[in-house]
Amino acid sequence: MFPVTSLAREERVSVLFDELAELTGQRNAIDGRIVDLVAEIDRDQLWAAAGARSVAGLVAWKTGVSPARAQTIAAVAHRYDELTECVAGLTRGQFSLDQVGAVAERGLPGCDSHFATLAQCATVAQLRTALKMQPRLPDPDPEPADRDDEDDDGAEAAAPASAGPVASITSTTDEHHTYWHLALPHPEAAAFEAALGSHRDALLADWTQLEPGQRPPMPTTIEAFLRLITAGWDAEAAARPHGQRTTVVVHVDLADTLGVLHGGPLLSDADRRYLTCDATCDVWFQREGQVIGAGRSTRTVGRRLRRVLEHRDRTCVVPGCGATRGLHAHHIVHWEHGGPTEVSNLVLLCPYHHRAHHRGLITITGPAEHLVVTDAAGQALTNASLARTPTTPPPQVAPCRGPTGERAQWKWYNPYEPPPPTTN
Ligand SMILES: [Zn+2]
Ligand SMILES: [Zn+2]
């Protein structure tokens, strides 16, 4: 016979576990529905219209979850049409978002069935182990030796043709981007990787210092790359103190307000205003082809002014953003239109939102103390998540008691093998 207290405890545990299972099933099913909606947002690129930097950025902002969790939701949504069995398990309430997320982030193409079977008993940690046991696929796009299909303006061969592989850097430009194609022999590539890695580590170290609630999206490799560029640039400027720090030179024709990048393409109105908004570039005014002066003094956001802005704004001022790095001082009324370079006419924006604004994707209306930011549809943006008290009943799904998580017998486990490519 059990003592009475012990029986009561067992009963309580079983009641608690029942309710946990019930809620877990419902939560999984709700996560499935969220993935549903995010997949639609991803497919139609609706996140950009809402003023977010990425699908994950939008999810973190609108649902109030951490960037890591938003990343998981976005990863599943991105492979929604491919991982049908895993997603179905989520929608049925049977799998958790983190289980399916692990598969979406790491699983090889075609692995859906395999991992949907495994997820019925495997925990997230066990799934991750199984995912690591997948074969490494050969590089899908090995660099062909001669690549002359590219429209390369400014190809530069860095190594003599006879001595091993040739390093090269080429670039092409379209309406929105400049693309660099960088080919490096392995030793230089390794140095590049290591430099990039150390800058990424530095960014991550700064990032982890922040309060979890205050963190902007996790720093990306692109940010690490830009940090590497800035560091190299600063070192160069320090070595030659009288050298010009800014090398982005814009020529603005005052009569027609046309902007031309020094030695580069004619700029669109949006790009001209974007580049000339903050004084990180050098602007030369000209009339009828004659340079009539450099406009820096009139609209330079000096160090002191910038410090005031940094103290006031702290982050990019677009709601839901929170970026703290590489911020631009944006003139709310552009200096081309007589906007003064003073505190009430300036706000800090991350490069993404700065560009989005000058392309008309978001609007920013001042003064800075009463800032209104709207999305493409004219809707005012706020920092708040969309969460509200539910008005519909929870999804009708079976309780989920979670994976059994029994000790895995890895010795008998057959890792996922992608099927051999079919050749006719
Ligand atoms: Zn601007
Ligand atoms: Zn931003």
Task: Describe what is shown at a glance.
The protein has 424 residues and is an alpha+beta fold. It is built from 14 helices and twelve strands.
Structural class: alpha+beta
Helix content: 40-55%
Give the end-to-end Cα distance, rounded to a whole number of Å.
71 Å
What's the number of extended β-strand segments?
12
Strand order of the largest sheet: 6-5-4-7-8
- Tell me the major beta sheet: 5 strands, mixed
Question: What does it look like?
Answer:
It is a single chain. This protein has 424 residues and is α+β, with helices and mostly antiparallel strands. Among the domains are: 8-135, no CATH class; 188-202 and 222-245, no CATH class; 249-374, no CATH class. The protein is 41% helix and 12% strand. The protein is built from 14 helices and twelve strands. It has helices at 4-43, 46-49, 55-63, 67-78, 84-91, 97-106, 112-118, 124-132, 186-209, 221-239, 269-277, 296-299, 303-313, 351-358; strands spanning 153-157, 168-173, 178-183, 249-253, 258-261, 266-267, 282-287, 290-294, 328-331, 346-349, 363-365, 372-374. The strands form four sheets. A five-stranded mixed beta sheet has the order 6-5-4-7-8. The chain has a three-stranded antiparallel beta sheet with strand order 1-2-3, with no helix packed on it. A two-stranded antiparallel sheet has the order 9-10. The longest helix has 40 residues, at 4-43. The radius of gyration is 27 Å and the shape is globular. 26% of the residues are buried. The model is unreliable at 143-163, 240-247 and 294-298 (pLDDT under 50). Residues 316, 318, 321, 323, 349-350, 352-353 line the site of one zinc ion (ZN).
